[in-house]
């Protein structure tokens, strides 16, 4: 029996995968610990989306390979998208790594640990020999994973993986392979397991979650799945992320009007407000088509909160293109958004395009964009004051007696409710908007006081 720690970098898909690697290790009799410092096995579940994210693997290995006070060092597993993209190269650059496993092969983690343990130690600084699996197997890993052990009010459920879109900046089609969907019946079963263990909210996740097509049958789509899951009595909230503008079908838009459990929130990355740049990014949508999709959504669900991703400094981006991005932020009124400096990723078409934007220009544009996004989020939070709604309590607040929950619009809401506990859904009124959160007061307490 060993103590293990899984460290997750990057996206929510990795959070799900990290949890599942934990399920596999727990199934082998190992025990989870909160810190890598007292673990015998450390899994680094990495992200390759931007250069800085990828570099974190190597700095963590540097720390982990140093012998501890008692002379021991952990078995090091490099998992996730850096493992997939750089494979055996990781072994050359960081010889202390014992296991290298890609995101589509991690169901083999226990086997790989046994394989590595059977290879005699050498002078590399690794504890064992090295086992590698970065295959993209035809048989999906999901068929080989143990039941979920997840406990808690909110859970992720991976419904789809991979990407066929090939945006010219992005590594995902290379690290996660093509789009594949899990069969609807498997997802309904997994959702029942989660709800039985206390989940009241499930977020359906996928690199292109709205390209979900029910797996090999190819007949059912994301709105069909959402409607099935909405029938589970104990499940109160359904979310999904991340969507591609190209796959926002009328059926999915209508689901926001039809299915009350589907939360009024949509993360729909636009990347740029300039149609010229969107074309160079191979995004398959324009500024106008994106705005038209949002108008359709708002027609059926006027209160929907919108979120997005932006890249500044894509090759060839002019000040005018960037102004178009600032304009779209103002026009949409995002509830929140994520923004990044363009990062050249090896093997992607944009990495070798002419007119790479100098770093200081990227930095200056990012600062302006982030100021606009922050101001927009503050406006959104202020505009929600007075709303009567429910929040799902997630964690303790900073001050004693405070709890933090999520509104349907995914705002963090701070409340004080004596007797309430994490996982409760409680009725509140939003009383104040802050830059990154809202304050709320419980409805019953207010009535009692009146
Ligand atoms: N550089 C910067 N940001 C990127 N993203 C994806 N690839 C890159 C890159 N090469 C951003 C996109 C995507 C989010 C997950 O990461 O905005 O939506
Ligand atoms: Fe990357 Fe584009 Fe696919 Fe999103 S849609 S994962 S940005 S290639």
From TrEMBL:
Residue positions binding [4Fe-4S] cluster 2: 163, 167, 170
Reaction equations catalysed: N(6)-dimethylallyladenosine(37) in tRNA + (sulfur carrier)-SH + AH2 + 2 S-adenosyl-L-methionine = 2-methylsulfanyl-N(6)-dimethylallyladenosine(37) in tRNA + (sulfur carrier)-H + 5'-deoxyadenosine + L-methionine + A + S-adenosyl-L-homocysteine + 2 H(+)
Residue ranges of every copy of the TRAM domain listed in the record: 382-444
Subcellular location, principal: cytoplasm
PANTHER family to which the protein is assigned, alphabetical: CDK5 REGULATORY SUBUNIT-ASSOCIATED PROTEIN 1, MITOCHONDRIAL TRNA METHYLTHIOTRANSFERASE CDK5RAP1
Function comment: Catalyzes the methylthiolation of N6-(dimethylallyl)adenosine (i(6)A), leading to the formation of 2-methylthio-N6-(dimethylallyl)adenosine (ms(2)i(6)A) at position 37 in tRNAs that read codons beginning with uridine.
Protein name, UniProt field: tRNA-2-methylthio-N(6)-dimethylallyladenosine synthase
Biological classification of the source: Bacteria, Pseudomonadati, Pseudomonadota, Alphaproteobacteria, Sphingomonadales
Gene, per the UniProt record: miaB
